[in-house]
Structures are given as structure tokens and as C-alpha cells.
Amino acid sequence: MEEFIREFLEALEQDKGYARNTVEAYRNDLTQFAHYAQSERPNAAHWNRVDKPLLLTFVMRLKERGYTPSSIARKIAVLKTFFHFLAERRSVDNDPTATLGSPKVEKRLPQILPADEIARLIAAPGKNNTPKGLRDRAILELLYASGVRVTELTLLDVDDVSLQTQVVHVGREGKRRVVPIQERAVAALADYLKQARPELTPRATERALFVNPHGGRLTRQGLWLIIKEYVRESGITTPVTPQTLRHSFAVHLLNDGADVQAVQRLLGHANLSTTQLYARLVETTEAAPDGRND
Fold first, then answer.
1. How far, in Å, CA of 250 to CA of 129, rounded?
2. Average pLDDT, integer, range 164-170
3. Average pLDDT rounded to a whole number, residues 153-177
4. Where are the domains of the chain?
5. CATH hierarchy code of domain 2-88
6. What pLDDT sits at residue 135?
7. pLDDT of residue 287
8. In terms of pTM, does the model score above 0.90?
9. CATH code for the part of the protein at 115-284
């Protein structure tokens, strides 16, 4: 069973370009189910032995253990994708997930920050005119100026940013998009690249745009700690994650009159319905700080 999981995950990463964190989340969900299936049916050594009753008891077990509807829905979606993969390859005789329902999940509105709190958060690293302070200011400016995902930001290389044309090239090959950035972010990036990055990483071979104190590529966990540090310093009491700046970018753009489809392209959303979720928050927010893109 583990061999098929491995082949499926390799296909997600290599053929479909899924991010490593997404692949790991799929691995965790599928491994959890495989362990459950083998504990319930010790002779279930192949995915062909999985049927709908076994899937239903797995879902019931998740509910008994207190999993939220959204977590259960995600696990079911992963199983459906996996069995579709197996069925396409004819590795199973039938797809037991074909008629498997999923709990109804109410879409929660994204958490955003008002303009004054965004301004305070972005200004916080400016109090520390060190390589770290310059790096962190550039990170926060770029997150809010471009709306890039956390993983996309950590995967950026120096060559992905053009200060002259004021754009950043985001995403993996085949799913690349060009996102314009405002002058304030361009200035912060220029200061970081000139004054801070050479001190943080003396290695000429390092291509990562944002680096950690050891000179290597900044990780998602490292970025999360940076956000938490400045949220605390800014006195912001609203729960803030790295995604909060992405959400705020989208809502403030829409609030400024941007077209939903244009925002969809900037965010890299595959479905317009995902972007439209932000439109429900438009009239409840303040205008964005001066100097951002139209």
C-alpha cells in the first residue's frame, strides 16, 4: 500500500508541480488511512481490498475523535484524488470513493487587517537598522505588495525580482505569473539587496532571495517567527498569520476598485470563486495605505 502512496506523491510533485508542504499533507492523510485500514483488516494488503464500508467507518472514527468537518472533508478529498489516480492507472478494479459523501463545510471568511494595523506591522522592522531589520522590512513590504503565498515567497530567488521593471516572477515552472509591486516595496528590496543580504550570506552560490541567519534559504517556519515577532512589537491583538497579509492585499485591492478577475490573476487562484470570497469583505474594510498599486 505504501508503494502506491509513494508513486502518487511523486506524480503530484513532479508532474503536477504541487508544493512540498502540500505533498507532505497528502502523505500524512493517506498514511493515516492506510494504518487504519490495516488495523481494521489485517489482510488488507492492497488498495483493492478497500471498500466503501471501510471508508465510512474511517470517517465515523474521525468524528468520534473530534476532527472538525473541514479536516474530515480534506481527508476525504485526498482519498478521492488518490483513488482516482489508482483507477486511471487501473491499479484498482473500482473506485470506492466515487459515491462517498463529504461533510458540509461552511467557508470561513479570510482574516484581514485594517490599513492602520498593516502600516504599523510593516513599519516595525524599521526601528532596527540592521541586516535583519532590512530583510524583515523587505519581506513584509513584499508580502503585502504582491499577495504572494508563504511558500512562493520562500522559494523566490534573487533573479525572480526585477527592481527596474518593478515586478516579481512567482511560482513554479508552468505556473509562473508576473506580479507588479509598488515603489515602497521596491525601495525596501533595493536596501535589503544592497546593504543586508551580502552580510547575511557571503556565499556567492546562494540564489535564495531571503536568507536566514546562517545564510541559507529562509523557511516557512522562519517566516512565521518573523511575523509573530513584529505582530507582538506592533501591539496588534488580532490573530495574524503570514497568509493574513495575502488576504489583506486582496481585500484592499478590491476595496480600491480592482476587478475581481485581475485580483484572481495576481493571486494565482485557479478558480474565480476563491477570489470572490474576498469580495464579501470589501465594504467592511478601510482603504489601503497610500502608495500601493491600483
1. 30
2. 93
3. 89
4. 2-88, 115-284
5. 1.10.150
6. 96
7. 43
8. no
9. 1.10.443.10
